[in-house]
Prior knowledge:
Strand order of the largest sheet: 2-3-4-5-6-7
Radius of gyration: 19 Å
Bound molecules: 5'-deoxyadenosine, FE2/S2 (inorganic) cluster
Helix content: 40-55%
Order of helices and strands: HHHEEHEHEHEHHEHEHHHEHHE
Largest sheet: 6 strands, parallel
Distance between the termini: 31 Å
Amino acid sequence: MEKIVQRFLERQDLEKAEFAELVRCAADPESADALRARAMELRRRYYGDKVYTRGLIEFTNYCQNDCYYCGIRRGNRLAVRYRLTKEEILECCREGYALGFRTFVLQGGEDGYYTDGRMEDVIRSVKEAYPDCALTLSVGEKSYESYRRFRQAGADRYLLRHETADDAHYRRLHPASQSPERRRQCLWDLKELGYQVGAGFMVGSPGQTAECLAEDLLFLRRLAPQMVGIGPFLPHHDTIFARERAGSVELTLYLLSVIRILLPKALIPATTALGTADPEGRERGLLAGANVVMPNLSPVGKRKQYELYDNKICTGEEAAECLGCLARRVESVGFRLVSERGDAAM
Ligand code: 5AD
Ligand code: FES
């Protein structure tokens, strides 16, 4: 095993250059095995064999942003746009609740139709109908005041991946109108407002180096979010990154273990992107340290249209089918899917 890996296992206070070195050890099987073993041990200590489920409702694919990697970016004129009404969102929740989901994630692009007032109305309606469920929002960058109103209306958690903590790399992935400082400030704001916060990044996005990933790890250590979502970058055919290479599954798995060790109690999903890049990606993610899965509750007729990257899995399956499939997959690697809110053990 590489020395820096040993050092990280002993204490996690690495500096940037050391984190970069740690990232480079992903190619060493012995190092990867050692990190995976520790990650599994920690995950078991805090969460046993439980895997939490989140019902993902992709309620709008309108977006005012233009992230270069994303299939639903504003500039993609070919994307077929849709948005669900409040009634349709509640219908997804009803179906999800009956299936045992106790967390709903409302995810969408930054859609001007969904003003703060409309969002508050949706949040209140969901929380009133399902007071025993956690509600997670994932609707991008908003003002402190908007986040405050959503929290007041009942939102419990917020997912906002920082995408990359390296400023130059952030600018390579986004137009000048989007700023890395602003992105990170949103996460601090959310934290201050008492949300359980989820950050995260893509692995292998164009221009990413080991130093970028080292910044990501430093940022995660500083922010100490309750949730961390990572998945491989996957090209989308109608973006300027169409011909870029996909991110590595192996490196994603390695980083999942590193993040589990860095933030032992974090809720970490085995993401759809990981399941898309490798047919057994989600199972392998669980074995690397992940403890959450996020099946889709969006209406099957709309699923294909929430296309962030090519070949996204589970776009043709009903929620119940995905849940059954996932339960089997989770059990196949020795874990069990539970029907609980699944708050962070911190
Ligand atoms: N490949 C992988 N992940 C992507 N995301 C967006 N586009 C892609 C892509 N092409 C991720 C981003 C975003 C999350 C909702 O999906 O990290 O935060
Ligand atoms: Fe959706 Fe397997 S999880 S079909």
